[in-house]
Amino acid sequence: MIIEQQVTELLTRGVExxxxxxxxxxxxxxxxxxxxxxxxxxxxxxxLHIGHGITMVKLRQFQDLGHKIIMLIGDFTGMxxxxxxxxxxxxxxxxxxxxxxxxxxxxxxxxxxxxxxxxPVEIKYNSEWLAKLSFADVIELASHFTVQRMLERDMFxxxxxxxxxxxxxxxxxxxxxxxLLNDKSLRAASxxxxxxxxxxxxKRTTVFNxxxxxxxxxxxxxxxxxxxxxxxxxxxxxxxxxxxxxxQTFNMLAGRDLMKSLxxxxxxxxxxxxxxxxxxxxxxxxSEGNMVALSDSPEDMFGKVMRWPDEMIGIGFELCTHVPMExxxxxxxxxxxxxxxxxxxxxxxxxxxxxxxxxxxxxxGQEHFRTVIQNQDRPEEIxxxxxxxxxxxxxxxxAGFVSSNGDARRNIDGGGVKVNDEKxxxxxxxxxxxxxxxxxxxxFVRIV
Length: 448
Description:
alpha/beta, Rossmann fold, Tyrosyl-Transfer RNA Synthetase
């Protein structure tokens, strides 16, 4: 019965999709054979973050069932970097840089994965096989994919889309205007072209014309090779399956395709849900400025979770803790019925810190929060503000804390402005619902 519960938890908790199917993976798990499962981590920074931790939690579920786990360090792919939808190819790193970045990865993961005992996690580096491929080998691998298939990748589609920059929230929004499907048709359009567009971020409708449209972002040829390389990792290690966030679905399915073509083997792919900021829809990451690092101190990790929007409580419990899902659903139900979400968030912060740093660290973070943060002179009732724009300067002015934009900047420069108990040092800080803005010791406002 315990094994059945473990399998059910593995197949459902925090899972976005399973390829080819959940039934296929369940059958593999019940076959009695030891499976080999991996996740790849590109060492593009010296610390892993909570998004990596979520995949490790899923890997640990496989490990607890007796399966072989490989923690793959992408020291070769990390030198190139996985392309993003926001810009052109990432800046390349040297081999020395990626190896230096990866030094602490095992130590950061040890609270989640088991590196000792009879079935320890194995660490591998993909330069072991990728660096040995000849140009002829690469061409042969590339022959298994089409350009059309590569262009199906979401981030490439986004970079090929025309965009405009919203004058209110400064976010880029895709242009969906008949006849304007690419740069060529844009150049041919009349200079007097005008159209209305509702910003998907701030929901304001603005009139744009041709000069407001941003050109498409370039896609470099070598970026197509990243999913090819990640796909070949599966072949080189002859794995049974791969685990990763759902933003890596394309790359992981590339490996599934290669395993079928080159080894006639059915590789499963399990994608996890992403931990996203409920107010912005963006995943928690370094690039978004909301990263929870596995190298954080217990105090920092606990405090960062306490600053998550209330809407993230349920998904946070599901992805980042071992609290039973029946209990998680009850917590969500109580919040809907009116219970103060702060109590649930205190529990969440403790459980998240426990998952990624251990029980002693969770207790340390909890004690620090209670004795240092909660005892600050913050009023129990904080007025709310729905600003016309969410930058810190506008909020300070509209809250009545300052007399002008210049006054707001002077207060920021003087260290007199805090958001969620942290001093603000930049003028363009963007706020979100739930943030508490403080000026001096007496003025507080909560953003809605």
